[in-house]
């Protein structure tokens, strides 16, 4: 019994410390704070060591104390310890009664009322204290609630909802900024950063010149520097062409398995940066003139 209680305390204390760490340190949902902040493990480990140390010292003290006593006093000491345990047990056993204050079955006739409805009789039990005090607490809560939300200007559910949605939109925008590969045909935008255009150029030189020529003047594939487009100009259409390829059998394949969306965005931007340049041997225009107003 003694040892069991000690072991329980040694486990419970670090467990409480752990719970505290999880509560106090903010993490993404589903993540453990102890894993994200490994230093907290040292803290929990310390609590564990202290708990062990305290339990061991108390046990050692008790042992030396017992040894120093005469045999008669030893027995007395043990008996008093035993008594303490018994008292604790008796208190625990009384707990349900304290919570409900109900009369045991044997004494029920003391609280039986006179009514007798076709053999159904009624007991006048005391209200269970747990129930009664919860009821009082709910009354207090109701007053606080009414004051906060109906007298003073507490946030309504609609306002709370709107605030959360606004915050979520900010979070999403921030996430999209970092997650570059989330670009789609609908959201793709023209890149202007020299580093992005340089990266796009590299991809173009390594993959596209065989058909479109070094200066994009056109070969097997069309001239990419003029304003005539078969599949549509502008960043969205060019991006879609790279993503899905050209018309079947023409030779322009889909590049979506070779490059990340952000890389395709770079090449598309590079290709469009060549608009109006003068290739050495431009291929004659194919398709139609494309301007931003032309849809698709
Ligand atoms: C195997 C040859 C070949 C390769 C390699 C190739 N293309 Fe093409 N490309 C073509 C052909 C052919 C077309 C015309 C498609 C059609 O008519 O549907 C085309 C069309 C295009 C268009 C649309 C032009 C328009 O007028 O609408 C773009 C943009 C383009 N290619 C960019 C690229 C880029 C960027 C690469 C490298 C990642 C590339 N191509 C690699 C052959 C190729």
Describe what you observe in this structure.
The protein has 296 residues and is mainly alpha-helical. Among the domains are: 2-100, no CATH class; 194-289, Cytochrome Bc1 Complex, Chain D, domain 2 (Orthogonal Bundle). 59% of the residues lie in helices and 5% in strands. The chain has 10 helices and 4 strands; from the N terminus they run ααααββααααβααβ. Strand 1 (112-117) and strand 2 (120-123) form a beta hairpin. Helix 7 packs across helix 10 (261-273). It starts with a helix and ends in a 7-residue tail after the last strand. The structure holds heme C. Heme C is lined by residues 204, 207-208, 210-212, 220-222, 224, 229-231, 238, 241-242, 246-247, 250-252, 255, 267, 271, 287.
- CA-based gyration radius: 40 Å
Ligands bound to this protein structure: heme C
Shape: elongated
Structural class: mainly alpha
The number of strands is 4
Q: How many helical stretches?
A: 10
Element order, helices and strands? Answer: HHHHEEHHHHEHHE
Taking strands numbered 1, 2, ... along the chain, how are they ordered across the largest sheet?
A: 1-2
Helical content, roughly?
Answer: 55-70%
Mean pLDDT: 89
Question: Largest sheet at a glance?
Answer: 2 strands, antiparallel
Distance between the first and last residues' Cα: 81 Å
Question: What percent of residues are in strands?
Answer: under 5%
Q: Which stretches are low in confidence, meaning pLDDT under 50 for 5 or more residues running?
A: none
Region (Disordered): 277-296
GO molecular function: electron transfer activity; heme binding; metal ion binding
Biased composition (Acidic residues): 287-296
Pfam families: Cytochrome_CBB3 (PF13442), FixP_N (PF14715)
